[in-house]
Amino acid sequence: MGSPHSPNQNHLLAALPTAEFERLAAHLELVPLPLGELIYEPGEQLQYAYFPTTAIVSLHYVMESGASAETAGVGNEGVVGIALFMGGDTTPSSAVVQTAGHAYRLAGRLLKQEFNRAGLTQQLMLRYTQALLTQMAQTAACNRHHTVEQQLCRWLLLTLDRVSSRELIITQELVAGMLGVRREGITEAAGNLQREGYIRYRRGHIAVLQRAGLEARACECYAVVKTELSRLLSDIPQRQVAAVVN
Amino acid sequence: MGSPHSPNQNHLLAALPTAEFERLAAHLELVPLPLGELIYEPGEQLQYAYFPTTAIVSLHYVMESGASAETAGVGNEGVVGIALFMGGDTTPSSAVVQTAGHAYRLAGRLLKQEFNRAGLTQQLMLRYTQALLTQMAQTAACNRHHTVEQQLCRWLLLTLDRVSSRELIITQELVAGMLGVRREGITEAAGNLQREGYIRYRRGHIAVLQRAGLEARACECYAVVKTELSRLLSDIPQRQVAAVVN
DNA sequence: CGGCTTATGTGGGACACCGTACAGACACCC
DNA sequence: GGGTGTCTGTACGGTGTCCCACATAAGCCG
What we know:
2 copies of one chain form a homodimer. By secondary structure, chain A is an alpha+beta fold. Chain A contains 10 helices and 10 strands. In chain A, the strands form 3 sheets. Chain A has a 4-stranded antiparallel β-sheet with strand order 2-6-4-5. The first copy, chain A, has a 3-stranded antiparallel β-sheet with strand order 1-7-3. In chain A, a hairpin with a 5-residue loop joins β4 (56-62) and β5. The longest helix of chain A has 26 residues, at 120-145. Chain A is globular.
């Protein structure tokens, strides 16, 4: 079978009540997001919100020195472009595609319109935003106190949760860029994890063999982010539609 | 003269249109916030939102190891307890009074009610939340890349902007706790700044003599947070009223 | 298949920060 | 006014990460 795309692959869209979803559905546009694509730059007026299905987008800040750091990631659990309904219309950070895939995009005006109807869409967007806030706060604490290896484990787990496969297509160089550390630091940490048999990698590919191993090595931050996300969004019933198998 | 408290000392409350302010005013309760008071703990169901006037509250996360780090600070520019209207009702972080002073507190139910009227209160709260998000994202990047001295300068400036005096009442030990670094690191950095003549300190007091010096030594993060806050909130007209003496 | 680009592995020296330990000094309170 | 608890200054070795340089190897493409 091919790859039947559906908005329901995005958890937020899948959770919208039928009436609200119907209003948006016609305007959802499936777009491919190639690795490295810049979705928005600092200060740029956002035009669209993106609901990733298979793609993963990294929100990160680039410093004057050129150094950068990811502050949060967005996959099929969320939406890129919260500034649209929060009222700022832009942010000082940028959004870059970290894992190639697809997303449904929606004109900012329409999302804002639906948000202002104060229905479940609004509630969902606000709750997701709070989860994002937690992710950023946790990243801040994690950057302060945890080792590169712990952070790598956290990052791998969070990324893994957003893709259907157990293999990530990304180079160590790019991972280093995400975490804001040296490439060699990733090489060393990944080497340790491979020696333990938790992962196996080759040029541009990282396969996770033992999730449990990574979870044991990761810092608490992974669990905190994960738990908070499900706490905030899980009690909202998913609109049940024929499950789309990918 | 004494110290005439007024809700208008808090920028958010001061920006509410008359009608909306009037609905809340009767329920605003002035409370003293002593240094170190725990406003809420991780996972605790919030009861009140706090609008600081002279107090400063630190949002921070305490790790399993006992180490901790501030993820954002809230002073007279903001509100403590955004989880109330974001829908989560609680957060994994805690809120502690970093500078003693006062705040107006408001029952969570009432804030949420007013928020749901979808007037300017909602818009203000959302915009402030976005500013808070930026602050957390910036803290994450800052923790990754900048030195203790740079971060101390950023922290001093942000704190200074929230108080009326140029002197902060806080020990180096507590500052270290905020930034999540060793106390000795602060001693050393503060020593440098004092030698340059930018600040002068004695047990539990830090006086800023040359703001410009601190600004030159601080990382860009201070300016980013500051600029974003004013971008998001400055274009909202402040309600001009006769100062209310309480 | 052979060459070239790009990713990964390794090592050495530098530096910032940590952990610990302890000495001095200030401010408060009895 | 003297004791006492707390805050601040200083020093030491240890460690994690950075910066730089270069070796090796994998995959792509002609």
